[in-house]
Design a protein that fits this description.
It is built from nine helices and seven strands, in the order ββαααααβαβαβααββ. By secondary structure, it is α/β, with parallel strands linked by helices. The strands form two sheets. The protein has a five-stranded parallel β-sheet with strand order 5-4-1-6-7, sandwiched between helices. A two-stranded antiparallel sheet has the order 2-3. Strand 4, helix 7 and strand 5 form a beta-alpha-beta unit. The longest helix is centred in the first third of the chain and has 14 residues.
């Protein structure tokens, strides 16, 4: 294997907590609330799954089911899905819903897992080609740039840019084509057994990690260094 495909959220990066996300939007809109109300709204947003990259919704309202299924294939649908979930919580100002959605796209809302820079850097040093394959409704490249990791990624295959989402094999094939690799020469690293394991249909090897908070998963990515040799010396 001479190429590595990585999922974004829950694999290389983790979004901030729902409480932190809400506090940032409150500050952005100049909204001051008692602490008890902040915590209550955060719990409600957590339960509805309104934070992209955060907890999954406990349930999706019937009027959002169709847009929810297609959310990662179109930027407008992605915004509609997540702001729709957030609107299940009666926040005190209507502008907060868009402020919340905009906040989650900011580099400051994301933290790389502790071993992500090390692992990406080592693979790059070995000559392993790297692509990010993500179900997402917005351009995550600025997140990688802000955290100094963009120079380690050779290609991005983002679902909303291609109108297909994992586990559709076409998105993984797009990434392999961008790297100039046969899928059989690539390892897909992700945290979702359904979405990321779809790469196996193309012949990619799949390695899964747990979607945990950053401080609870310090070194899960390091295991892939044993799976991917120096591309220059690989048989």
């Amino acid at each position: 294997m001479t190429g590595a495909l990585f999922d974004f959220s829950g694999t290389l990066f983790r979004v901030e907590s729902t409480e932190s996300w809400l506090r940032a939007a409150l500050e952005r809109t100049g909204t001051a609330l008692p602490e008890a109300e902040v915590l209550g709204y955060a719990r409600g947003l957590e339960d509805t799954g309104a934070l992209p990259g955060g907890a999954a919704p406990l349930s999706v309202p019937p009027h959002l089911e169709e847009v929810w299924r297609a959310r990662d294939r179109d930027a407008g649908l992605h915004r509609a899905a997540y702001t729709g979930l957030a609107r299940q919580v009666p926040l005190p100002r209507p502008e907060l819903y868009d402020a919340l959605y905009d906040r989650h796209k900011e580099p400051a809302a994301w933290r790389p897992y502790p071993d992500a820079p090390e692992v990406l850097g080592e693979l790059h040093r070995r000559g392993v080609r790297i692509a990010v394959v993500s179900n997402i409704g917005w351009d995550l490249r600025p997140v990688f740039r802000a955290h100094g990791l963009d120079g380690l990624v050779d290609a991005y295959a983002l679902s909303y840019e291609h109108g297909v989402q994992k586990p559709d094999p076409r998105l993984f094939q797009t990434a392999c084509d961008a790297l100039g690799l046969d899928p059989g020469d690539a390892l897909m690293v992700g945290d979702d057994r359904r979405a990321d394991a779809g790469a196996a249909a193309l012949g990619c090897r799949v390695h899964l990690v747990d979607h945990l908070p950053v401080d609870r998963r310090p070194d899960a990515l390091r295991a892939i260094l044993d799976l991917l040799p120096d591309a220059a010396t690989a048989p």
